[in-house]
Amino acid sequence: MVDVSHASLNYGDLNDARSGRVPVGAVLGSDAAGAVVQAAADGTGPAVGTQVVALTSGAFAERVAIDVGALAGIPKNLEPAQAVALPVAGVAALRSLRAAGLGPGKRVLITGASGGVGRFAVQLAARAGAHVIASVGSATRREGLAEAGAGEVLIGLEGLQRPVDVVIDSVGGPQLVAAWNLLAPGGSVQSVGWTSGEPAVFPPYATVGPAKSLTSFVIEGDAGADLAVLTELAAEGAVTVEIGWQGSWDRFNEAAEALRGRRIPGKAVLEVARGELHAPIPSPQD
Ligand SMILES: NC(=O)c1ccc[n+]([C@@H]2O[C@H](COP(=O)([O-])OP(=O)(O)OC[C@H]3O[C@@H](n4cnc5c(N)ncnc54)[C@H](OP(=O)(O)O)[C@@H]3O)[C@@H](O)[C@H]2O)c1
Questions:
Q1: Do residues 123 and 204 share a domain?
Q2: Candidates 8, 10, 11: which one to mutate for ligand 1, based on the most atoms within 8 Å of Cβ?
Q3: How many whole angstroms from 112 Cα to the centroid of ligand 1?
Q4: pLDDT tens readout for residues 3-30
Q5: Do 55 and 126 sit in the same domain of this protein?
Q6: Which CATH number characterizes residue 11's domain?
Q7: Cys bridge to 266: 66, 174, 212, 242, which one at CB 3.0-4.6 A?
Q8: Is-above-0.85 flag for pTM?
């Protein structure tokens, strides 16, 4: 059981809210950080007082019960506000790059590079020795991406002619089709998201030719082990967490509108305002 001090806002959380998939009254949110207030009954997992970060359902809460496999301890030199930006966006970036078969010297295109998943993907791909091409929607959204490791930063796919080996796509629509056309034989597109909301129309025969793949992606299973990798990288400074918006969760609407309006570089972090004193944790005898 964790007392949540910070949550982060993902594009997917806003999709969940509108999807109809989440029952009325259920608690939204996926990324939580805070202190353990009750350890797992079977003795596994961190002790009371440990600062942890997790990818869990129901993260927009003051207190949440989390599977031990879904969390990682926060290293001493990493702030919870930074750690909480890592779960959904960082794990999606890490796993999609892994699934694509990244290696040194590969040309990697990251679309939606200004956002949460995109910024982590740029940094992780660059760290793995890839030549990273970051695609953003407008000139103001380029900020910080060259420093994050992008060798090229493009508006859309303007001017990109040489084939790429890997695409991490979170935009979908016509840009996905264009990215597919740029993919080299043997290459891999990971379809992580679809922020454009537009259909992708493949011209006839676009999918006929030397083998290359378009793979759907979703985060499945426990994220704790990957979160441990990401928190260590962040604590070492090998991955930088860019927080483009931070404030009380009382200002949730403001954060959501800014995210939807493409005004947040990197991540939005919500500080969980504490209410009245919590009820005591019930013991097994109660
Ligand atoms: N499959 C999974 O497991 C998984 C995990 C994480 C995220 N996702 C999905 O991945 C996507 C990105 O998530 P995120 O958390 O990184 O979101 P984010 O932080 O809001 O970033 C999304 C980026 O997409 C671009 N974008 C937004 N609206 C757009 C539009 N109408 N047309 C073109 N580009 C647009 C923006 O870049 P510019 O402003 O530069 O255009 C923005 O920086 C979402 O669709 C999310 O649901 C999926």
A1: yes
A2: 11
A3: 6
A4: 999 999 999 999 988 888 888 889 999 9
A5: no
A6: 3.90.180.10
A7: 242
A8: yes
